[in-house]
Amino acid sequence: MKITLTKIKDLFIIEPILFGDNRGWFFESYSKLKLSEHGIECDFVQDNHSFSALKGTLRGLHFQLNPKAQAKLVRCTRGSILDVAVDLRKGSPTYKQWVAIELSADNKKQLFIPKGFAHGFVTLTDNVEVQYKTDEYYAPEYDRSIAYNDEELNVQWGIDNPILSNKDRNAPSLKDSDVNFIYQEV
Fold this sequence. Notes:
By secondary structure, the protein is mainly beta. Helix content is 5%, strand content 38%. The chain has one domain (43-176): Sandwich (Jelly Rolls). Strands 1-2-10-7-12-5 form a six-stranded antiparallel sheet, with no helix packed on it. Strands 9-8-11-6-13 form a five-stranded antiparallel sheet, with no helix packed on it.
């Protein structure tokens, strides 16, 4: 598995090493040992799986507040998405910066998103399935969203009229949110 640091500290792209033959292929999709060799220390406790029927479906930007913040390991197992992580850690040298990467069933890439980030994706194809691990259980009372089109963040989704849930359509701007993440140099 190839693990590459993005322009934002603690945010990693993970690419599998594929072993294939005439029968098909095999790859290691998760290795606690290999992640820990890159400083990624997580005890994943929950796996989530979403399906989006239509191209242009946007989910995000989502996160859970402290003390129930979640690190995530995200992959697309059917179709293709533009996956986005936004640094919301006040005091971080990359505060309010974001990274976008295409994750697809074809490229098999994953994105590791640490605590303190908002996460979202837009589907680039119909019939998309996304699976992700979290290191904290879902806690509805800590669940939050920020508007996908927040001008302060200026995320470039590559779409003008996304398909949104009511939750995402009515999400507050960053300046009106109660984000409580503080950057801590390790």
